[in-house]
Amino acid sequence: EVYFKNLSKQKQKEVMEKNGNNHKLRVCVATCNRADYSKLAPIMFGIKAEPQFFELDVVVLGSHLIDDYGNTYRMIEQDDFDIHTRLHTIVRGEDEAAMVESVGLALVKLPDVLNRLKPDIMIVHGDRFDALALATSAALMNIRILHIEGGEVSGTIDDSIRHAITKLAHYHVCCTRSAEQHLIAMCEDHDRILLAGCPSYDKLLSAKNKDYMSIIRMWLGEDVKTRDYIVALQHPVTTDIKHSIKMFELTLDALISFNKRTLVLFPNVDAGDKEMVRVMRKKGIEHHPNFRAVKHVPFDQFIQLVAHAGCMIGNSSCGVREVGAFGTPVINLGTRQTGRETGENVLHVRDADTQDKILHALQLQFGKQYPCSKIYGDGNAVPRILKFLKSIDLKEPLQKKFCFPPVKDNISQDIDHILETQSALAVDLGGTNLRVAIVSMKGEIVKKYTQLNPKTYEDRLALILKMCVEAASEAVNVNCRILGVGISTGGRVNPREGIVLHSTKLIQEWSSVDLRTPISDALHLPVWVDNDGNCAALAERKFGHGKGVENFVTLITGTGIGGGIVHQHELIHGSSFCAAELGHIVVSLDGPECLCGSQGCIEAYASGIALQREAKKLHDDDLLLVEGMSMKEEEIVSAAHLIQAAKLGNTKAESILRTAGTALGLGVVNILHTVNPSLVILSGVLANHYVNAVKDVINRQALSSVKTVDVVVSNLADPALLGAASLVLDYTTRRIY
Q1: Residues annotated as catalytic (active site), given as ranges
Q2: pLDDT of residue 410 exceeding 60
Q3: What share of the chain is helix, strand, coil (3-state, %, to 5)?
């Protein structure tokens, strides 16, 4: 350790000698708003504390200088920093044009300031439109740029601005390992990237022991207790202003209904912010006894407020980043932070389009306490950043270099490449067959491969890999671009990890199996895995009767009985991935034994295996065959023979099918009384035989409020493969959370 410390000191000494023994690094820190100042202030304090190495110039612009947003430049003065220049750069307006004009105004004013300051390096933070103006000005004036928090991923226009600043910046300070990898993937020089953590964490991780009750009482009232109030901070989404205003209105309605003391902060300066303020005033938030609406809270005090809140709600990056340091529950609304790395304290309400969804999220999150998360920092970012600044050699060429990956020569894009069909590799692991298909975005099965499912784990995995490799190669010939692999399999599956936890008895040697890793490694593609019943529900949601339906249930009637539940457009997996095991709903206490070991399950009455069992009993008693039926001596008795016999008038076969249909119908009634879907979809080879029986049982047994449910037969030819494909197509082309 001593050796490396001495080595570091020697390197810094050499850099100082190269830069001139008496030359201090002149650093310009430009801050645009309250949020970026919370990240820049710790760095500014560090620079100020080492005057032998640095000269600090502070430029203030943007919303800092606007009264409507609290004149937050004052907190910079209170921190005892000399503000060299104040630039009024915000053009008042309520649409996207105002942001563009603000950038233009900043570009007009900044050159004069930078000419006077002549900084060696400018520190720019984040992804705001003001920061883009700063980076553009500095780059065009040949001033080195250090960008804080590059490489991160979020929603809206912020992503584009952040990555644009990355391309202009010469040096990068990132907060997470993923962000570092993103910067490298964007062809930035690894030697100029510092993984330091978030500077605000240096203050956060030492903040919780301070006197917080006086701060809470000052902002929320004397009668408020810790963990018994909410902090709300929501900004407009500039790429969908109308929807974000509606979402804010729903959020306020939910907070009013939730009836807890709430601190509401005014939104950022963005297109749509004035409309959000009007919504607050229209609902009387500023005068409501449960609400405190404020333009700004000093960061030191804001830390204490979120650290001891019962919940934080909104779409601010603070919620998914800083608040994790305290384990405070967070409800992240909408798409503004899509793609951010988050701790387990964050609950995403992706489509916050109803008050009930937001209210339900509040009921789930309020008052919980989660483990503290250090995804974004360990409290030592500033020392690392200062050390990084000292290592900068001003005599190195200013022109930045990009580290492009090697590419093959003479590769050009042709019309066939442009017209490739986005597709998925779908894998269906059944009890008998193993199938792989190329499935297009529209649900067309372009090509399908079928083999018998091997009995051993090793043979099965080898065959899956072989078939997938063949299909991926063939995809080029049929002009399909494979986006990923989706796998539908029987048994209980952990879809987050891609692991089959427990298999059905129909598939041997198939428990605790990691499917994702070997297939992803072999094909270099993302892999998703889920239970076959869930996949059938996903197929209906994307391609079938469930398209656009908020709440529905799919029941598969085949060799076994399975299904999937879609609630509020999302698939339900359950706490241990055991939700929607619909075949094991018990409808009789003394019914036939099921393969699961229980008695009286729907599957023991209505599955293909159950019907085959009853058909064999009739055949053994010479009661199966009737006039018009014949069987070869070596032919195996199946459920199909039972159905044929019933159609030809075999009363015993009719009775068995009637009992099976009644058992399935009773199971559906239980489902209706539990999750209250608006649609039940029967899928599988037996669906047409059961649909009328299920409707009859619903009319006889269900509560009147659920009798109006629609019961339909699936029109999908291959729901297992289509569901496996939808695992891929939904997530690679839509969104990632």
Answers
A1: 532
A2: no
A3: 45, 20, 40
Question: Residue 186 has what pLDDT?
Answer: 94
Is 603 labelled as part of a ligand binding site?
Answer: yes
Cα 171 to chain center, whole Å? 29
Exposure string (b/e) for 468-481, b if CB count within 10 Å is 16 or more? beebbeebeeeebe
Question: Does residue 279 lie within any of the structural domains?
Answer: yes
Q: What is the rounded average pLDDT for all residues in the chain?
A: 89
Predicted local confidence at residue 331, as pLDDT? 95
Tell me the CB-side half-sphere exposure of residue 7, using CA atoms within 13 A: 4
- C-alpha R_g of the chain: 31
Q: Was 372 annotated as part of a binding site?
A: no
Residue 632: inside a domain: yes
Q: What was the pLDDT predicted at 733?
A: 55
Contact 134, 124 (CB under 8 A): yes
Instruction: Provide the pLDDT confidence category of residue 14 given band limits of 50, 70 and 90.
Output: low
696: pLDDT strictly greater than 70: yes
Last residue of a domain, one of 507, 528, 543: 543
Specify the pLDDT at position 37: 92
Q: Tell me if 228 sits within 8 A of 263, measured CB to CB.
A: no
Consult the annotation and say whether 28 binds a ligand.
no
Residue 415 in this model has a pLDDT that exceeds 80:
no
Residue 224: is it exposed, middle or buried by C-beta count within 10 angstroms (0-12/13-18/19+)?
A: middle
Q: For residues 186 and 222, state if they share a domain.
A: no
407 CB contacts (<8 Å, ≥6 apart)?
none
The pLDDT, as a whole number, for residue 210 is 66
The Cα-based distances of 337 to 154, 156, 158 in angstroms read 4, 8, 9
User: Do residues 135 and 169 make contact, with C-beta atoms less than 8 angstroms apart?
Assistant: yes
Q: Is 584 annotated as a binding residue?
A: yes
Contact yes or no for 719/585 (Cβ under 8 A): no
Residues 6+ positions from 212 with CB-CB distance below 8 Å: 226, 304, 307, 308
| Residue range of the domain that includes 307 | 205-365
Percent over 70 (pLDDT), the chain: 93
Looking at residue 618, which CATH number applies to its domain? 3.30.420.40
From residue 368, alpha-carbon distances to 206, 207, 252, 304, 308 in Å are 22, 20, 21, 17, 11
Q: What is the pLDDT of residues 559-578, one digit of tens each?
A: 889 999 999 999 999 999 99
Reply yes or no on whether the pLDDT at 329 is more than 70.
yes
Type of residue numbered 541: R
Strand partners, 59: 30, 85
Helix axes 532-543, 719-733, angle to 10 degrees: 70
Residue 89 assigned as binding residue: no
Whether 183 and 301 map to the same domain: the answer is no
Q: Please return the burial class of 611, using the count of CB atoms within 10 Å of its CB with bins 0-12, 13-18 and 19+.
A: buried
User: Pick the residue with more confidence: 18 or 38?
Assistant: 38
Note the pLDDT tens digit of each residue in 338-362: 878 888 899 999 887 889 999 999 9
Do 76 and 100 lie in one domain? The reply is: yes
pLDDT at 690: 94
Residue 482: helix, strand or coil by DSSP? strand
Residues 216 and 191 in one domain: no
List the end-to-end C-alpha distance of the chain, in Å, as a whole number. 40
State both tokens at 314.
């909104």
Do 234 and 90 sit in the same domain of this protein?
A: no
Q: How many domains does the chain have?
A: 4
**What is the number of alpha carbons within 13 Å of residue 20 lying toward its C-beta?**
7
Strands 121-125 and 83-87: unpaired
- State pLDDT tens for residues 276-319: 999 999 999 999 999 999 988 988 899 899 999 999 999 998 88
